[in-house]
Design a protein that fits this description.
heterodimer; B: 60% helix; elongated
Chain lengths: 88, 162
């Protein structure tokens, strides 16, 4: 039973990979660049920052940065808990 | 952690202020030059690590306090979230100060320009908040690990003078 389930899952996964490998664009063609072109063209006038990377990190993808800051906060809380005073 | 030789201590006294100033420069100019809150905070924390290594733990603890760093770190994360919530009139994380003409609100000409500090809306404020959080947090890590090394050195005496 277990082997059959794993076999079906493997076949599904493998066929999915095969289809995506066949549909891949030929070697050397650039990937999609609409998003990058939008950022390069409009980031300076929309956000007003010269540094386009910062305008993406803190404005267009602010949730990502919020997650990073929360991860750092959680890490430091864990380190404070790890190095706490054990015996008086 | 013992203190190092006289040469290292004097060079540290000469240099660590400049390292801290450079870190704050990277934080504050995050919207104009490469860098930002995370990178500048790491630079400031490296100055704290230099101070701790060259002067030893007991001497450096007079200057660096874990409680103050903990407070600063919490203030940084809270300020970041509060600034994100301030744009809630439109959406979460809306840049409500950009191109408004007021505080940090000058418009920027697209293309190559010399750069103006008074641009980019909430980005400088968020950079400062994240920089505060990162340098306080990494300072806490460095200080606490130095104390842990001290504790394991004196395992037999069970002494932990925190």
């Amino acid at each position: 039973m277990k082997k059959i389930v794993f076999g079906i899952a493997f076949i599904l996964f493998f066929s999915f990979m095969l289809v995506s490998a066949i549909n891949m664009r030929p070697f050397g063609e650039p990937t999609f660049s609409e998003m990058d072109d939008y950022f390069i063209k409009n980031a300076q006038s929309e956000v007003g920052a010269n540094n386009v990377v910062t305008s993406i990190v803190f404005d267009y993808r602010g949730f990502d940065t919020l997650g990073e800051a929360t991860v750092l906060f959680t890490t430091i809380s864990g380190i404070i808990a790890l190095f706490r005073r054990v015996n008086k | 952690m013992k203190e190092m030789s006289k040469i290292v201590k004097n060079i540290t006294k000469l240099v660590y202020g400049f390292i801290i100033i450079f870190g704050f420069y990277v934080i504050v100019h995050g919207h104009l030059t490469p860098g930002g809150g995370f990178q500048g905070g790491a630079v400031v924390a490296s100055a704290f690590a230099l101070l701790l290594i060259s002067y030893g733990q007991l001497e450096a603890k007079k200057l660096l306090k874990v409680d103050i760093f903990s407070l600063l770190e919490s203030c940084g994360l809270t300020a970041f979230i509060v600034i994100a919530f301030l744009g809630l009139g439109t959406t979460f994380f809306y840049n409500f100060l950009a191109n408004s003409g007021g505080w940090f609100g000058n418009a920027v000409t697209p293309g190559i320009n010399p750069g103006d500090m008074n641009t980019a809306g909430v980005l400088p404020l968020m950079n400062m908040a994240v920089g505060l959080e990162v340098f306080a947090g990494l300072g806490i890590i460095v200080l606490l690990m130095a104390e842990g090394a001290e504790y394991t050195n004196k395992e037999g005496e069970h002494r932990n003078d925190r």
